[in-house]
């Protein structure tokens, strides 16, 4: 079973930036479209951004122009660069395959607050 380990979250002021990382334990990562998701308290988990194997990206409307997803297949790692953060971006962020085939990791908490 692939294990996913997210990191890079924290407390940041509105307008600030964070870079999230997600490392997958197995090489199969390189053959799978990946995505970042987030879940705010009391809300459903939602898709934030996705990236295909060759690097084609797609974003939720809330992330367009502010977030950038990328991947390093050699390191089994997917990144999410988040700029111009807003309080409404506060959530636990998770990565997974686009089809969510793997067990969820622990996520990484992002809190945007003054």
Structural class: mainly beta
Number of helices: 0
Q: Compute the average pLDDT.
A: 95
Biggest beta sheet summary: 6 strands, mixed
How much is the radius of gyration in Å?
13 Å
| Proportion in helices | under 10%
Number of separate strands: 10
Report the β-strand fraction as a percent range: over 45%
The poorly predicted ranges are: none
* Spatial gap, N to C terminus: 39 Å
Order of helices and strands: EEEEEEEEEE
General form: globular
With strands numbered from the N-terminus, the spatial order across the biggest sheet is: 2-10-9-4-5-6
What would you say about this model in short?
The protein is mainly beta and 114 residues long. The chain is 0% helix and 46% strand.
Report on this model:
This protein has 114 residues and is mostly beta strands. The chain contains no helices and 10 strands. It is 0% helix and 46% strand. Strands 2-10-9-4-5-6 form a 6-stranded mixed β-sheet, with no helix packed on it. A 4-stranded antiparallel β-sheet has the order 1-3-8-7, with no helix packed on it. A hairpin with a 4-residue loop joins strand 7 (67-72) and strand 8. The termini are far apart.
Describe this protein with a few key phrases.
114 residues, mainly beta, six-stranded mixed sheet, four-stranded antiparallel sheet, globular
